[in-house]
């Protein structure tokens, strides 16, 4: 059995070389595998696949093409049907500890657990379950919120550009009456305004860069869910979905934190010019053209979706399903 488990290692699925048939390898024959059986946790060549589909003990097993199975994320590929400690098949799921367990595990470590449930009941229709739908919907909601946040931050940059352009035009109107001395202060003023503008745009751009990175990660998790629904076994899908439940909450908390820490606050720029009547005496009395101030307006975007059902999920601390 240990030899079979080693040949059927999920780690082999990530190898850049051609995947070999695990059954044939036991006979020192190296045929190319074409399908993967998640129940047996083995890669099979076309010949072994035929025997596999005819044998009584395996004829009901579902197989997927190797190329399709390899599309699953490494964390999903790492999910096994059997206990690493006892080499027994997982039969129950312990809600208290958030992990699957075999018959021996129950005797050794779960004697006091009263919330054990049969895995066969839990994984039934798991790909169309409320949990799967809720996780996928939560990730899509996060992605939509990220898109709204990015649009808002981009519009803020355009607003700053418009404000800068407007003040530059006001400055040019004043220049018509001031000549050489006003030109010198104009240069000083524009440098200061450009510095403020760059500083604020840089702050906004850092937020945009960060949410772009988050957006890519959320899209990847959505692709992982789609792949699991199509190619993963029911157990892998069930545990994979359970492992992603807090990903959605983390992304929602991230968006909420952006708002709370002021990263989504609108940055505006204002210029307070001296009275136009006073500009007539600018050569003798005025040495500073104007005062540039900035204003931060609290973000009004809603970054936390309503009626989130994720709070009722329990943590699965033993399984790390984050694929960065």
Short description:
It is built from eleven helices and eight strands. By secondary structure, the protein is mainly alpha-helical.
What does this structure look like?
- By secondary structure, the protein is mainly alpha-helical.
- The protein is 52% helix and 10% strand.
- The protein folds into two domains: 1-70, Double Stranded RNA Binding Domain (2-Layer Sandwich); 127-312, no CATH class.
- It has helices at residues 2-7, 22-25, 46-54, 66-69, 74-77, 103-109, 119-122, 130-178, 180-231, 234-260, 282-285; strands at residues 35-37, 42-44, 63-65, 92-94, 99-101, 116-118, 266-273, 290-297.
- The strands form three sheets. The chain has a three-stranded antiparallel β-sheet. A three-stranded antiparallel β-sheet has the order 5-4-6. It has a two-stranded antiparallel ribbon with strand order 7-8.
- A hairpin with a 4-residue loop joins strand 4 (92-94) and strand 5 (99-101).
- The longest helix has 52 residues, at 180-231.
pLDDT averaged residue by residue: 81
Biggest sheet details: 3 strands, antiparallel
Percent strand:
5-15%
Distance between the termini: 33 Å
Number of domains: 2
Structural class: mainly alpha
Q: What would you call the shape?
A: elongated
Q: What is the CA-based Rg, rounded? A: 31 Å
Count of distinct strands: 8
Note the run of SSEs as H and E.
HHEEHEHHEEHEHHHHEHE
Indicate the low-confidence ranges by residue numbers: 1-16, 312-321
- Strand order in the sheet with the most strands: 2-1-3
Helix % is 40-55%
Count of helices? 11
């Amino acid at each position: 059995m240990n030899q079979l488990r080693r040949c059927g290692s999920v780690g082999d699925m990530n190898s850049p070389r051609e995947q070999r048939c695990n059954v044939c390898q036991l006979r020192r024959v190296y045929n190319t595998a074409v399908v993967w059986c998640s129940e047996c946790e083995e890669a099979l060549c076309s010949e072994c696949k035929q025997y596999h589909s005819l044998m009584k003990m395996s004829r009901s097993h579902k197989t997927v093409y190797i190329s399709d199975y390899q599309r699953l994320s490494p964390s999903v590929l790492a999910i096994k049907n059997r206990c690493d400690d006892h080499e027994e098949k997982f039969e129950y799921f312990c809600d208290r500890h958030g992990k699957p367990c075999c018959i021996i595990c129950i005797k050794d470590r779960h004697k006091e657990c009263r919330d054990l449930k049969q895995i066969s009941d839990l994984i039934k229709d798991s790909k169309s379950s409320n949990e799967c739908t809720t996780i996928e919907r939560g990730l899509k909601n996060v992605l939509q919120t990220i898109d709204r946040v990015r649009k808002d931050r981009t519009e803020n940059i355009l607003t700053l550009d418009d404000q800068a352009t407007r003040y530059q035009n006001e400055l040019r109107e004043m220049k018509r009456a001031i000549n050489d001395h006003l030109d010198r202060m104009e240069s000083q003023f524009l440098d200061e305004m450009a510095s403020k503008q760059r500083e604020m745009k840089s702050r906004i751009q850092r937020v945009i860069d960060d949410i772009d990175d988050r957006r890519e990660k959320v899209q990847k998790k959505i692709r992982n869910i789609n792949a699991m629904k199509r190619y993963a076994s029911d157990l892998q899908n069930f545990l994979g979905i359970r492992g992603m439940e807090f990903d959605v909450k983390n992304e929602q908390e991230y968006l909420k934190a952006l708002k709370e820490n002021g990263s989504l606050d609108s940055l505006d720029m204002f210029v307070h010019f001296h009275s136009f009547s006073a500009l007539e005496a600018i050569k003798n009395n005025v040495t500073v053209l104007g005062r540039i101030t900035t204003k931060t307006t609290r973000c009004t975007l809603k970054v936390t979706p309503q009626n989130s059902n994720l709070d009722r999920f329990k943590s699965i601390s033993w399984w790390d399903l984050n694929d960065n």
